[in-house]
Amino acid sequence: MAKKFTELRASLSQAAREKSDGMARQMLAEMPLNELRQARGLSQKMLAEVLHVQQQSIAKIEEAHRHVPVHPTQPHRGHGR
Q: How confident is the model over 12-70, as pLDDT tens digits?
């Protein structure tokens, strides 16, 4: 039977857990807003309500980031390269 993630994580050394946490934070920081929003199961409207902005503002932010690489050394996934 497969182990639960919490059990696998508990079996890691402290250094491995810290490295994993750092990598996860880095990936989240680089993730485009629309992917992060969708991964959390939120619509643009729901996110807009949480942030007290209009849905159109979320759409504009997401559209703007589709055309700009998040990392200067790596092409953005929506950049078409």
A: 999 999 999 999 888 877 788 888 899 889 999 999 999 999 999 999 988 887 755 54
Tokens of 45: 């409207």
3-state secondary structure string across the chain: CCCCHHHHHHCCCHHHHHHHHHHHHHHHHHCCHHHHHHHCCCCHHHHHHHHCCCHHHHHHHHHHHHCCCCECCECCHHHCC
Tell me whether residue 47 is exposed, middle or buried, using C-beta atoms within 10 angstroms of its C-beta: 0 to 12, 13 to 18, 19 or more.
buried
Are 77 and 32 a contacting pair, CB within 8 Å? yes
Number of CB atoms found within 10 A of residue 70's CB: 15
